[in-house]
Structures are given as C-alpha cells and as structure tokens.
From TrEMBL:
<feature type="repeat" description="PPR">
    <location>
        <begin position="235"/>
        <end position="269"/>
    </location>
</feature>
<feature type="repeat" description="PPR">
    <location>
        <begin position="447"/>
        <end position="481"/>
    </location>
</feature>
<dbReference type="InterPro" id="IPR051240">
    <property type="entry name" value="Mito_RNA-Proc/Resp"/>
</dbReference>
<protein>
    <recommendedName>
        <fullName>Pentatricopeptide repeat-containing protein</fullName>
    </recommendedName>
</protein>
<feature type="repeat" description="PPR">
    <location>
        <begin position="483"/>
        <end position="517"/>
    </location>
</feature>
<dbReference type="Pfam" id="PF12854">
    <property type="entry name" value="PPR_1"/>
</dbReference>
<dbReference type="InterPro" id="IPR011990">
    <property type="entry name" value="TPR-like_helical_dom_sf"/>
</dbReference>
<feature type="repeat" description="PPR">
    <location>
        <begin position="342"/>
        <end position="376"/>
    </location>
</feature>
<dbReference type="InterPro" id="IPR002885">
    <property type="entry name" value="PPR_rpt"/>
</dbReference>
<dbReference type="Pfam" id="PF13041">
    <property type="entry name" value="PPR_2"/>
</dbReference>
<keyword id="KW-0677">Repeat</keyword>
<dbReference type="GO" id="GO:0003729">
    <property type="term" value="F:mRNA binding"/>
</dbReference>
<feature type="repeat" description="PPR">
    <location>
        <begin position="377"/>
        <end position="411"/>
    </location>
</feature>
<feature type="repeat" description="PPR">
    <location>
        <begin position="518"/>
        <end position="552"/>
    </location>
</feature>
Length: 554
C-alpha cells in the first residue's frame, strides 16, 4: 500500500496532463489489479494444498508444472504454502514439500521457511525431523560465517502464525547445546525469557551439563545464577552438575570449609552449591544481587537459616556502606532468632576491627570466641597478624604468627609479607627472618616479595653477607627464583653499602638471565658511580640506558 501511495505522489508531481480524477482512476485500477493478483495467488495456494492432500502419492510431476504459474521458487510464496499446511494432520505433507523444494535446482530455503516447518513438525510431534532441520539451519548459519542467534529471533517471530507450542523453544536450546553453541544457547535463553517464554528445566540441565563437560566453568556459573534469577529452580541433576564444576575448579573443599565454620556440620550438596554461588556474586561486588538470591533460596528451602544470616552479614561487610554498628545489629537479630554464633562471623568482626585499627576489641572477640568453644581458623589469625603489624603492635603480630603454626596452620603469603614489610623497617628484622625459617620448615611457600623485603631490611642494616645469603637461598629454591624485584633490592643494598664491584657483577648476571634492568636500576648505579667519582662508568651506564630507550629517573 505504501508503494501505491508513493506511485500516486510521483504521478501528481511529474504529470501535469492528468487531472485529479484521472489520477484517482489510475490508482484505483492499480489497486484492483494488485488485489486481484493477491487473491488469485491465495486461491492458487489453496488449490495447490488441497490437490496435494488429495494426491499425496502422485503429485511430484503435477507440482513441477505448477512451479511457473505459482512462482514456488520464491521464499515468500513457499512460506505461505507451508502456513496453509500448518495443522498437525498436514505436518508430514509439509515436510515432504519442504524436502522436495530443497532438491530443486537454484532454490535454497530461507531461515523463515526452516522455522515455519520446524513449528509445524513440533506441533505434529515429528520431533526427530524437527531436530534435524534445526541442526541443518544452524550449521548453515555458522558455515556462512553468521551467528546462529537469528534462528531464535525468527522462530519466535513465526511462533503465533503457526499456532505452535512452547516445546519448540526447548528443542532449539537443546540443539544449540548439542552443537556446542553454548554462548548462543545462553543468549537465546535470555532472549526468550525477556519475551516471556520459559524453557523447561530439562533444557537448562542439558545446556549446563554440556557446558560443564567442556570446562567452561565461568559460563556454568552464569547459567546457574540466571536460573535462580528467573526462578527456574534446580533439581538433583542440576546440583550434581554444579558439584562437578566445583570439583574441576578445585573449589569444592573451600565451599565445604566455609559451611563447616558457619554450620558446624556437613551440609547437603544443594546448600554447598548455593553457598558457592552467593560467595561468587558477593566477591564480584554485586551485593544487592546476592541478597535477592539469598531471599529466594530461603523461600524455597535451598539454604539453611544460619548460613543465610551469615552470608547476609558477609554481604553487608563487603559493601561500601558497612559499619560495625549495623553489622552488630544484624548479628544480634540473628541471635534473637535462636541461631547460634559461629567462627565465620567472629572472624568477620575481628577483621572489621583490625581494619579500623581497634585491635583491643579484636583481641577481646578472639578470646570470647575461644570461651564459646568456637575454633579460630587460618583467616582468623591472618586478619590479626596483619592488623597488629599495621598499627605497630609487632610483638602481638609475631605471637599470632607463632600460634597459627602451633595449630598446624600457616599464614597466607600476602599477610606474612605485609607483616614482614613492617618488621623489616624496625629492630624486629631478625625476628622476622627467624619466623620465616620456622614457616619454611612447616611448608610455607614464600614469593619474590618475601625475599625482597628481607634483602631491603638487611641492606639498610649494612649486612651484605645476609643480603647475599638470602639471594642465594632464593636461587636454589624451586618455588621462587630471582626476578626484577629481587635484583632491584639486591643492587640497591649493594649500592647503599658502596659495594659497586659486586653490584656490577649482579647487573651482568641479571642481564644474562634475561631480566631487563629498569630506569630505576640504572639510575641507582649511575648515581653511585658519580658519588664514588667514577664519571666514566656513570656515563657508560647512561649511554646504555639511552640505547635501551629508557627515560632517566628524575
């Protein structure tokens, strides 16, 4: 109709010979002709479909003759014919016609034709044929360098016209999964949910199972989270798949340990999975999402009360708006409901006090925790070791470090390094080194930062023998080897002690081991040579620095 109006405008603008009545007459004639042609086409399509129904066995030759008059080689016409055969009793006939057309030379079915026939077949319960055609159209899209996502859009767009059933979308998601088109399957699922179409749990389980087997663990958790978001709740098969995902990630024991600290007893696999999901969401900083999922899980008995309360407090603790007063209020509310306190929450509050520098309160909570028979764990000691060191309470920091070792635990490397950094700036340097020796005997794995802090500390004390001893100790350890940070600390210590000959030696070793000196390293050596009066060597290093395209340190 838009075309007719445009034609009318053209006639009015370009032809001054015609008056208004003549123009209207032409448009009326054109409209009548077009309408008649459409009516004739519709009549022919109806006649064709009726003939196909009557002559189900001997219509091949007859249909070939009808091709020219009906223009059955056009996708739009084919789609109209298929729509006339949309009823379940015509499904087999529609499929036969679809395949017959596919064999015709120079004819290719479009995505819409594929989607219409799939709807017809699913409604007629020809599920194997429908699946085969879905696989075919998806493979063609991928081989043509196009996305398979268009198929879900067209399938949804033709859904009402074919009077289809929702299972067709389950079949599509399952086919995406079978073809390992996982990201497209997930996007298709979200697209359908946005359009108020829900797939069955069976389809989700198939998708999540195949994704997990393909080691795409990030996507596995995204899918599981989306299930909870859309209130598609898991069954035993889903939970089993997610437990396998946790095992592959090596995080199952972490989740079990968290629940042991909260609940004190082993929990069901479902609670383990759901706790792990909430932790991931909170750690990503999506606090509000985590709280929403917790509420839904509680409503469906998918998580235990004490776990839910503890995770809620943890979520608040991780938010920017957290303060100890609001946290304590939630904790008191939990206790008033008859839910017992636990090691996890005590550690949380001890950590909060350590962050605020209120170490006395943190120590008091530690003692209260022990009185209640709650067992401190590695993280409890970690926050106390770091907190005490940060405010200069080094004796207490070392004491907690000794206590954690007595309990058969080890501090984290990052926490020990933070304590070491503070101790190495003071008279506690030697105690720090002794503590490292104790930890090494217990299986502690230091890193380059650990040795760098100690080398810096001994360098400031002028104890080059200890500096070199630490360097060689690091060289012979299999778990850490000297890198840029170590060499920078070593050269700085040597320069500060006027050991320039040794500094030049280790600069050469550094280069031989493909550790590229930085501007800072060069500048230390240049300044030291100038200070010693060796201008020639200082200028050589300066030229070397320029050749390396490094900017001088100002």
């Amino acid at each position: 109709m838009g075309f007719l109006l445009q034609s009318g405008k053209t006639l009015l603008n370009t032809s001054t010979k015609f008056n208004l009545h003549q123009t209207i007459s032409i448009l009326t004639t054109h409209l009548h002709t077009t309408t008649t042609r459409k009516h004739d086409q519709t009549t022919t399509i109806l006649h064709l479909c009726n003939s196909l129904r009557r002559n189900r066995r001997n219509w091949d030759h007859w249909l070939s003759k009808k091709l020219a008059s009906l223009e059955l080689t056009h996708n739009s016409v084919v789609e109209k014919v298929l729509l006339e055969l949309k009823e379940p009793h015509d499904a087999k006939l529609a499929l036969k016609l679809f395949h017959w057309l596919a064999r015709r030379p120079n004819y290719h079915h479009g995505v819409e034709s594929y989607c219409i026939i799939v709807h017809i077949l699913v409604r007629g319960k020809f599920l194997i044929d429908a699946r085969v055609l879905l696989e075919s159209v998806l493979r063609k899209r991928v081989e043509g360098g196009e996305s398979g996502f268009m198929v879900v859009e067209v399938l949804f767009g033709t859904y009402k016209r074919t009077l289809s059933i929702p299972f067709v979308f389950d079949l599509l998601v399952q086919t995406y999964s079978k073809l390992r088109m996982f990201d497209v399957a997930f996007d298709a699922w979200k697209y359908l949910e946005e359009n108020r179409v829900s797939c069955s749990l069976v389809s989700f389980n198939k998708l999540i199972h195949l994704v997990q087997k393909s080691d795409k663990n990030v996507l596995v958790w995204k899918i599981y989270e989306y299930m909870i978001k859309k209130r598609t709740y898991p069954n035993q098969f889903t939970v089993s798949t997610m437990i396998n995902a946790l095992c592959k990630e090596g995080k199952l024991q972490d989740s079990v340990d968290i629940l042991d600290r909260i609940h004190g007893k082993r929990c069901s696999p479902g609670v383990i999975v759901n706790t792990s999901l909430i932790f991931r969401v909170i750690e990503e900083g999506r606090i509000d999402d985590g709280i929403v999922y917790l509420k839904r899980m509680l409503q469906k008995n998918m998580i235990i009360d004490d776990v839910a309360y503890s995770l809620t407090i943890y979520a608040r603790y991780k938010s920017e708006k957290f303060n100890l007063e609001s946290g304590q209020k939630l904790f008191d509310e939990m206790l008033s409901r008859g839910i017992s306190s636990n090691s996890f929450l005590y550690t949380l509050f001890i950590g909060a006090h350590c962050k605020e520098g209120t170490i006395d309160e943190a120590n008091w909570l530690m003692e209260e925790m022990k009185v209640k028979g709650l067992r401190p764990y590695d993280e409890t000691f970690n926050v106390l070791i770091e907190g005490c060191a940060r405010v200069g309470r080094f004796e207490e920091s070392l004491s907690f470090c000794e206590e954690i070792v007595k309990r058969g635990l080890l501090p984290s490397c990052s926490v020990f390094n933070e304590m070491l950094r503070k101790l190495c700036e003071t008279k506690y340097l030697y105690r720090a080194n002794e503590m490292l020796s104790v930890l090494l005997d217990k299986g502690f794995l230091p890193n380059e930062i650990t040795y760098s802090y100690l080398i810096d500390g001994y360098g400031r004390q002028g104890e080059i023998h200890e500096v070199l001893k630490l360097y060689h100790e690091m060289e012979y350890r299999s778990d850490s080897s000297p890198g840029l940070l170590t060499y920078a600390s070593l050269l700085r210590s040597l320069c500060e002690c006027d050991k320039l000959k040794e500094a030049e030696k280790y600069l050469a070793i550094m280069k031989d081991r493909s550790v590229t000196p930085t501007s800072y390293v060069y500048q230390m050596l240049i300044d030291s040579h100038y200070k010693k009066g060796d201008t020639e060597r200082a200028l050589q290093l300066k030229e070397e620095m320029v050749r390396s395209k490094l900017e001088p340190v100002i």
